[in-house]
Amino acid sequence: MESSKKVLLVTRPIAPPWDEASKNFAYFLAKNVKDIRFGLLTKGSVSDLSDNVAQHPIYTSSSLNLKFSQKIKLLKLVSLRKEYDVLHFMLTPAKLNSWAFKNFVVNKKIKTIQTVATLREDLFSDSDFKKILFADLIITYSDHAKNKLESLGFPNVKRVYPGIDLEYYKPMKVRGGSTATMEVKPPLLKKWNINPEDFVVTYPGEYVRLGCTDDIVNMILQYYSILE
Fold first, then answer.
1. Element housing 114 (H / E)
2. Residue range 1-60, pLDDT digits in tens
3. Is residue 195 helix, strand or coil?
4. Taking a C-beta distance cutoff of 8 angstroms, is the pair 26, 102 a contact?
5. Residue 72 is part of which domain span?
6. Does residue 165 lie in a domain region?
7. How far apart, in whole angstroms, are the C-alpha atoms of residue 168 and residue 182?
C-alpha cells in the first residue's frame, strides 16, 4: 500500500564510514520506519535498506567535510523536490547552505523541517539565526535551544531528544557476570584497566571538530575534585 508521506532527508552523504551523527540518524530512521517513503542522498548504493527507501546517489565523495564541489551537488534537490511531500534538512545550518536552500530549493508547495543538533552561539548572532532557520518546523535536541529560538520569535519549534538504538545500546553480559551498556571484550577491559563491575560512562561525541572536549575534560576534573 502506498504510504501517505514521502520525506527526503537532506544530509551529508549516506555512506560509510558511519562517523557523523546526522547521517547515521537519517540512515537508521529510514531503515526502521516502514510507513514513510524516505529519500536518502548517497554516494553509490547503500545495502540493507528496504523498498520504502529511495537512494539518490548525488555525491561523489563520502568525506565528512563537504568540499564546494559536493555542496554544489545539493542543487540537484531542485529536480528531486517534486517527488516528495516533505524536505527534512539535517545538515548543520550555515549562512551559505541556508541561503541556497531558501532561494533555490524551498517552495510553498513542499513542507520543510530543520533539525538543529546544537545552536552555535559562538559563531552566529541572534540576527544570523533568523536568517539561517527557515523551515515550517524546527526540531531541537535540547530545551535550551528550543527556549532560545522561541525567545527570538520562532513559533514553530519542537524539542525531540536524540534517538538511541536500543537494540545496540542495551545491557549485555561481559566476562565476570556483570552487565555493561555495550559488550566490552576482555582485551579492552585489560587495556584500560577496567574491572567488570566498574561503572563506565562513555562520551560517544565529536572529540575534535566542534572544540568542546576541553570543556568536558575540565568539567570531569572539577567533578572528581568535589568527590574527593
1. strand 111-116
2. 455 799 999 998 888 887 788 888 899 889 888 889 999 999 888 888 888 899 999 888
3. coil
4. no
5. 6-159
6. no
7. 7
Judgement on whether residues 50 and 155 belong to the same structural domain of the protein:
yes
Measured CA to CA in angstroms, residue 71 lies from 25, 79, 118, 123, 127 at distances of: 20, 15, 21, 20, 24
Interstrand relation of 111-116 and 86-89 (parallel, antiparallel or unpaired): parallel
Report how far residue 172's alpha carbon sits from residue 190's, in angstroms, rounded to the nearest whole number: 18
| Same-domain check for residues 43 and 132 | yes
How many CB atoms neighbour CB 227 within 10 A? 5
* Cα 151 to Cα 96, 107, 121, distances in angstroms: 24, 26, 14
| Backbone φ and ψ of 78, nearest 5° | -60, -40
SS3 156: coil
138, 157 contact by CB (below 8 A): yes
Residue type, 150: E
Q: Cite the DSSP H helix spans in the chain.
A: 21-32, 68-72, 77-80, 95-100, 126-132, 143-151, 186-191, 213-227
- Whether 167 is covered by a domain: the verdict is no
- Give the end of a domain, one of 114, 130, 159: 159
Q: Which pLDDT tens digit goes with each residue over 119-145?
A: 888 888 999 999 999 999 999 998 999
Task: From 136, 63, 55, 132, select the one nearest 92 (Cα to Cα).
Answer: 132
Specify if 139 maps to a domain.
yes
Can you tell me which residue has the cell 547515521? Answer: 24
